[in-house]
Amino acid sequence: MELKSVGAIYDCIKGAVKQKGAGVEVVDEKALRGAAIDAVIFNAVFSADREVLQESRRLITLIAGALGVRAASIHDLYDAVGRGECGGFTVPAVNIRGLTYDTSRAFFRSAKRNNAGAFIFEIAKSEIGYTGQRPAEYAACVLAAAVKEGFRGPVFIQGDHFQVSEKNFTRDRKTEIEGLKKLIKEAIEAGFYNIDIDASTLVDLSKPDVREQQRPNFETTALLTEYIRSNEPEGVTVSVGGEIGEVGGKNSTEEELRAFMDGFLGALPKGIKGISKISIQTGTSHGGVVLPDGTIAKVKVDFDTIERLSRAARASYGLAGVVQHGASTLPDEAFHMFVQRGAVEVHLATGFQNMVYDSPAFPQPLRDEIYRHLIERHSDERKPADTEEQFIYKTRKKGFGPFKERIWTIDEPRREKICKELESRFDLYFEQLNAKNTAQYVKKHVG
């Protein structure tokens, strides 16, 4: 329910939470985890009153902190992986485009059951736009979900694909960089202590020399890394990722990795901490390749490239390893290979979106309304050869923003069924990525 005043928020949590100095104390966690936290997070997302919205978000951070839940950086854990002090697992990173609070709750339930601590909630720059989820809102949903499900410990929230637009960069470099800096600052202030810079869009394959191909990439990544370091809260080392191959392009090579890293380290001012991981291209594409009937084509991942580049990243540069993007539409039997071949992190997005939309529990009238909206508002994005199924599949991610509240307020039994399906999928990823029982490593290296 939407609350009309800040006082009404405190009425909602009365008896469960009380103010204590500049913070809060949870006096009845059971009551808090009932309707109270649901009301606070709803208003942290949907309140039309800016004061209510901001106070709801502030309260969620304080309540989470009082319960031992905090936004954190995975940097120190990745440093330990790079040093060979722990490993043998691949960290799942999930992009949640809609039904964010309920999906995060499902993920925390799975994490608790699997004794997992190494997992990431993320949202890309592009997703922030079309899903209508600014960093502060997204972080509030994740932290509130942790409170609701009784999770304890650090929570890793990541800015995924904070990407440089090649077109905008060429036209006005200063404005494009300033826009990214503004987003980075906003994200860090919201608790995004993990940020993946993606300047791979600037790689110029027309240059004959690999170092020169990568130059605009590594110079821009170094510049933005330095900016991140200058905006870190005290005691936090943000985990920064770089990227050498644009997802959907040609597969990455070890020569490109070394050209990027050597150039990046040379461009980074002395004494400034560098990146902890690096994203590469191995044959996948975001969302998968959709066939005319709306199904997804099978993709062959170049696992040899993953193994070779991960080994080089660790041995030569102390990184945790390479990151695989566009993985959620791969067959289930592929995921154990990421562990065997040394991928440190796998990004998962579209598969969860598909599960929400395609679930028998998702209301058919709402789905039909969303698809009509896409046809009316986004028909200019339809390629001449696209079937309607292909067009809908490629654009339905843009239904989450305009229909955010309608999806959020799907009746509870239906939401529970959808999230039970998602939870089962999260269990599978923890199993296949050998990411069960990673809470011990997080406790040791992150605290």
Provide a descriptive summary of the structure in words.
The chain is of the alpha/beta class and about 450 residues long. The protein folds into two domains: about 60 residues, no CATH class; about 325 residues, TIM Barrel, CATH 3.20.20. It is built from 19 helices and eleven strands. It has an eight-stranded parallel barrel with strand order 4-5-6-7-8-9-10-11, surrounded by seven helices. It has a two-stranded antiparallel sheet with strand order 1-2. The longest helix has 21 residues. The radius of gyration is 21 Å and the shape is globular.
What's the short story on this structure?
With 447 residues, this protein is α/β, with parallel strands linked by helices. It has helices at 6-13, 29-46, 50-66, 75-82, 100-113, 125-131, 135-148, 166-171, 173-190, 210-230, 254-267, 303-317, 335-340, 350-358, 364-377, 388-395, 404-408, 412-432, 439-445, and strands at 17-20, 23-26, 69-72, 91-95, 120-124, 153-163, 194-198, 239-243, 277-280, 322-324, 345-348. The radius of gyration is 21 Å and the shape is globular.
The fraction of residues in strands falls at 5-15%
What's the CATH C level of the largest domain?
Alpha Beta
- Approximate helicity band: 40-55%
Distance between the termini: 36 Å
Radius of gyration: 21 Å
How many separate helices? 19
Instruction: Output the structural class.
Output: alpha/beta
Shape: globular
How many strand elements?
11
Please identify which CATH superfamily of the largest domain we are dealing with: Aldolase class I
The largest sheet, given as strand count, sense and whether it forms a barrel, is: 8 strands, parallel, barrel
